[in-house]
Specification:
disordered N terminus, Immunoglobulin-like, six-stranded mixed sheet, mainly beta, 2 domains
Length: about 325
């Protein structure tokens, strides 16, 4: 009996060890000195990996030159001094101050983006600024960074990275979304604020990208409403551009809630959920596309449309939240 109990105990210990070895660590940093940037409003404790969309962090927002203390995100003003706010949070029961460096980057507005770091020529991100010697007390800290000479025209995604003794839990790779989901030191903010006059088409940029360094990448473009649908009182069209539209046509123009509307355009007919399937991108390719919003005569108020890429298995690789206000 004792031999059987010892054998059972050994099997149980081996099973538990295997489970622990295969589990994703909660964090590489003890909670009392952990600093984190939320991935979304549901990410209240800096979970690693986080759950839900990770590309519209509420802890990063842009303020215009005239109002550096704003609390509502706005689009950056081209050629002017803008202000980027980054909120650095601490875990419950945090102890002592934590000092480190906050690095801020931008890239063209869109989905998947390739990460390589400051010295990597294949990297899709451009440095805005570094803030050295930032001290984050147990209650957290809100950092305001200058963004001088925003290039234009266009809108931009922002990436904030916190570096200190609070290390990355998971080693970073080329996929920005995977890095962000697995490490609470990274925040990604892709929000485009759009003011729509009625009956006037408003094109907004969206880069459709391959997040991997080598090989073709098959991606789907997903459009969905957060709240009331824009399609109905408004019209929504995706302009893929000539190259990507030709590849989609060759692949059979598959999708859900969509229909071809021209040589390069796809009309969204289901405002709650639509998907353009089977877009093929070459190695490291980022193709410029446009999301064209047209508010109808009956459109009024505010709408939120989320546009993101997935891989062939439906796994999210990045996107943009468009916040629409009809005037």
């Amino acid at each position: 009996m004792r031999r059987l109990q010892r054998r059972r105990s050994a099997v149980l210990a081996a099973t538990l060890a295997a489970m622990l070895l295969g589990a994703v660590p909660a964090s590489a940093t003890p909670s009392y000195r952990d600093v984190f940037i939320r991935d979304n409003t549901g990410d209240t404790a800096g979970a690693e990996p986080s759950v839900g969309d990770v590309w519209y962090s509420p802890d990063i927002w842009v303020c215009p030159p005239a109002n550096p203390g704003c609390t509502v995100d706005t689009n950056p003003v081209v050629g002017a001094l803008n202000w980027v706010h980054v909120k650095l949070n601490r875990q419950a029961g945090a102890e002592t101050d934590v000092t480190g460096t906050l690095r801020l980057y931008y890239t063209a507005m869109g989905g998947a983006a390739n990460w390589g770091g400051d010295a990597d020529p294949l990297d899709d991100w451009t440095k805005i600024t570094d803030a050295f010697g930032v001290t984050v007390p147990p209650g957290g800290y809100e950092l305001v960074l200058p963004w001088n000479g925003v290039p234009g025209p266009g809108h931009y995604c922002l990436l904030a990275r916190w570096e200190s003794v609070d290390t990355m839990t998971t080693p970073e790779g080329p996929n920005t979304l995977t890095n962000t989901r697995n490490n609470n030191n990274i925040g990604w903010h892709n929000v485009n604020t759009v003011v729509l006059p009625r009956l006037q088409p408003q094109p907004e940029p969206f880069m459709i990208g391959n997040p991997w360094r080598e090989g073709d990448f098959k991606t789907n473009l997903v459009l969905k409403a957060d709240g009331k649908p824009f399609v109905g009182p408004g019209k929504l069209v995706v302009d893929l551009g000539p190259d990507l539209a030709a590849r989609w046509k060759q692949a059979g123009q598959r999708g859900v809630g969509v229909r071809p509307a021209g040589d390069t355009t796809v009309e969204i007919v289901d405002g709650k959920f639509a998907r353009i399937d089977g877009l093929v991108l070459k190695s490291r390719e980022r193709v410029p596309a446009k999301i064209v919003f047209t508010a109808g005569a009956a459109a009024a108020g505010q709408f939120v449309v989320r546009v993101n890429q997935t891989d062939g298995q439906g796994v999210d690789v990045g996107g943009v939240e468009y916040r629409l206000t009809v005037k």
